[in-house]
Amino acid sequence: MALVDRLVYAIGDIHGRADLLARLLDQIRADRARQAPGAEPTLAIFLGDYVDRGPQSRQVIDLLLEFRRDPAFESRFLLGNHEDTMLDYLDGQVSGLGWSRHGGAATLQSYGVAPPAEESRAAWSARRKALVAAVPPEHRAFLEGLELTISLGQILFVHAGIRPGVALDQQSKRDLLWIRREFLEAERTDPWLVVHGHTPKGEAYGAPGRLCLDSGGYISGRLTAASFCGDTVRLIETGRPEPRIFPAQLANAA
Questions:
Q1: Measured between alpha carbons, how far is 162 from 168 in angstroms, rounded to an integer?
Q2: What is the pLDDT of residues 154-205, one digit of tens each?
Q3: Helices assigned H by DSSP within 69-215
Q4: Please, is 37 exposed, middle or buried when counting C-beta atoms within 10 Å of its C-beta (0-12, 13-18, 19+)?
């Protein structure tokens, strides 16, 4: 059985790099025009972590909302741990001090809100109202509508990974958004090819049964997407003019 029975694109962690996202989306549009001209809308799945670290979080969400209106694509968006933390801050569930240490200050600045000069819980809590007022309702609705997992054919799309040995409907939200070593180092017996982000390297990488598309764009200057068609997996990367095949032995489900 093929991995998927339609053309699918998955896009890795963006982290406030609207400049790179615009280039990658142009590459995906051009690739789709070659691969499936005139076909029904092509599925595009974004793996989360749109905000923080890079300087253009607001602009990234604007681009994603614009792309969602493109009739050539059926777009779906996963929740990343950074969006989850941003929502917790907006809702008053966290002070924001921890968020500030993981790129939250850059997100505030992208919405025109100056981060507090003092690194304290009280200072960050006091800045919450300004961000709540600055985030457009369409952005808030987008963040609140993000999905945790998407399964298609033999592929499971998720932000961070899954806990081995736990049924999909029993996975915790924290694991789906945050897991690393327990997933990355495990020998799994589930049937999925897990396509994820969250744990960056300078380019896409994988192992039998998983593929990570987080190429650390906010540092490396490279965003990565993968296209899936039948059993063929290709990588589309900013800075590379042509897609490249991802090794079959690393793309097969366990």
A1: 8
A2: 999 999 999 999 999 999 999 999 999 999 998 888 889 999 999 999 999 9
A3: 81-90, 97-100, 104-110, 121-126, 128-134, 137-144, 173-178, 181-184
A4: exposed
The per-residue pLDDT for range 9-39, each reduced to its tens digit, is 999 999 999 999 999 999 999 999 999 887 7
Q: Which two tokens stand for residue 17?
A: 């790099």
Q: Which residue has the tokens 């990565």?
A: 224
Task: Indicate the helix (H) or strand (E) that contains 234.
Answer: strand 232-237
Q: In whole angstroms, what is the distance from residue 67 CA to residue 28 CA? A: 11
Tell me the backbone φ, ψ of residue 181, rounded to 5 degrees: -55, -45
Distances (CA, A) of 218 to 20, 21, 36, 181, 201: 9, 11, 31, 22, 11
Report the DSSP pairing between strands 4-11 and 224-230. antiparallel
Element (H, E) at 62: helix 57-68
